[in-house]
Amino acid sequence: MSRVYEPFGMEQTGRAHPPVFAFRKGAGAKSSSGDIPLKPLASSRKQSKGPSDQQVSLDRMSLVSMRKTRGGREWCAFRCPVHLFWPHLCSLPPEILLCIFTYLDAASLLSAGCVNRLFYQLARDNFIWGKIYAAAFPPKTSSWRASSMAKMEASVGSLNVQDLAPGHWKEEFIQKQIGLMRAVLVQELKPVKNLIGLSTKTLEVFRTFGLGWTIVLKQEHGKKHILCHSHLANNESSVTVTWYSQSWPPRATLATLDLYGVIPLFRDHSYPPSKPGPRWYSLITTYNLHHLSEAMVIGSDSLVRIFRLDPGLLVGLWQRNDELAFIMAHLHSYRLLERSTLGSATSSHELSLPVPLEDHSPECALQDYQLHMDMHSGGVFHLCGTFSLFARKGHIENGFVKLVFVSAQNERDHLPLIGKLGLFWKTQMLKGHIQNCSILDATLLDECRRPFWCLSIPVCLVQADSKIPQLRGPTYSVDYADAEGRVHLELLWLKETGEFIIISLVLFLSIDKVNRWFGTCY
């Protein structure tokens, strides 16, 4: 199975910091093995203030070995250019490199595997990873009299490292570590729930654990551009993720965009979650960027045009040169944790359907739906409401279950939008507001109050011809459709009060989705 890892300590520029070595003061200092004399290099780096025990790790593509004291003698850290040690390190026999790798921790070993092909093969050694696995996940049954070293040796002895494919225990360790991170996340998200079954602490927990989202832009010739999110915003039932940069690749060369959920493999409480390190990439969805047609444009202002790519992606292009300005993804909170962590680098996680209800009544799947809907942008909410069916039940029409929540004939159900409708965008230097556009979040609950259909999409208002002659102003419509259903929203513009009024809200559910969900045969 293909995996994607982010090199530990590497920054977006891709530059590597020179390595840091530790030597004792004075002539004739020896290496830790006591064989090769080492001479300290001139450097302005201050004396190391690390712990008294030796720590060895591969951080920022460098070897670090720092001690405060040893045998009453002070040690100092020196920084030397990569080109002075790199050819000699790569020319070492694989046996020596493998011996060096045995002293690395899991995070450093994963980073070493990202250096080159030789390091990748050596860093998959089953014996090394077997020791790491046994130390991290010891067996539950062991003698209480035995020392920790004896327990680890017993654990390593019980592991099979001979007849397994290279990298077996590495994959086992990663899967176990990811499982632990997911379990802790689930426990953090479980206690607080709101009325629509979604966690109200979602974004806070995600930030605490370092969960984020990354896009990978692939050019036609195969080159990839990886960009971490620039801004996160938590809404009532969705998360808005924004990316902007001053060095986008040329739009004409872009082929696809992959959206990933990214979670750290290790959570170190002594460092903030943003500290670079090995991370797990979970593919959420892939978008085709070959043809951004005019039909995908949902709005514009004097600076940008915005294109909608379903599901839930906005691409902003500068008016002056038709190049990328920003990218914005709208992710519904329902099962977002699973979608952002349970996939792999090459495949997304397929959400399983719940067990069908044992309801054989003729009105099964046609009644007792509840809809929670938000319209918002930039932290401003124009609509936040919960709707019940206008009629007691829906009915089947042209292969869809039609559910009417707001009827144009019933004026008592009509409700206004709050504030001036528009979509906010921003980059590093500029920001703007596109009129008559917004973000629509919808959560449809079935009769057991389980989320049946969830979506978070950018929408725009399109002027339409009204079928009701007595209306006092122009009408607009909002339409969205995918494989699971359709949304149709009608609004009336009142010039006297300067506000939109929702006069019709209808959902059409796919019969195929209804039959799979409820076990019916409509």
Outline the structure in words.
- The protein has 3 domains: 106 residues, no CATH class; 140 residues, no CATH class; 149 residues, no CATH class.
- A hairpin with a 2-residue loop joins strand 18 and strand 19.
- The longest helix has 22 residues.
- The N terminus is likely disordered.
- The strands form 8 sheets. Strands 20, 21, 22, 27, 28, 29 and 30 form a 7-stranded antiparallel beta sheet that branches. Strands 10-11-17-16-15-14 form a 6-stranded antiparallel beta sheet, with no helix packed on it.
- The chain has 10 helices and 30 strands.
- The chain has 522 residues and is an alpha+beta fold.
Using the alpha-carbon principal axes, give the shape: globular
Structural class: alpha+beta
Q: How many separate domains?
A: 3
Largest sheet: 7 strands, antiparallel
DSSP helical segment count:
10
Mean pLDDT over the full residue set: 76
Which percent band covers the strand fraction?
35-45%
- Share of helical residues: 10-25%
Based on CA atoms alone, the radius of gyration comes out at 29 Å
Distance between the termini: 40 Å
Low-confidence stretches: 1-79
Count of β-strands = 30
Keywords:
seven-stranded antiparallel sheet; 10 helices; 522 residues; 30 strands; alpha+beta; six-stranded antiparallel sheet; globular
Q: Can you summarize this structure?
A:
The chain has 522 residues and is of the alpha+beta class. 18% of the residues lie in helices and 36% in strands.
Topology:
Layout (H helix, E strand, L loop, with lengths): L19 E5 L4 E2 L6 E2 L16 E4 L4 E4 L2 E2 L2 E7 L2 H9 L3 H8 L4 H7 L4 H6 L3 H11 L11 H11 L9 H22 L12 H8 L2 E8 L4 E5 L2 E4 L3 E6 L10 E11 L14 E10 L8 E4 L3 E6 L3 E6 L5 E9 L3 H6 L28 E8 L2 E9 L6 E3 L2 E7 L8 E2 L5 E5 L4 E5 L1 E9 L5 E10 L1 E3 L10 E8 L2 E10 L4 E12 H8 L4
Antiparallel strand pairs: 1-7, 2-3, 4-5, 6-7, 8-9, 8-12, 10-11, 11-17, 12-13, 14-15, 15-16, 16-17, 18-19, 18-25, 20-21, 21-30, 22-30, 23-24, 25-26, 27-28, 28-29, 29-30
Helix pairs in contact: 5-6, 5-7, 7-8
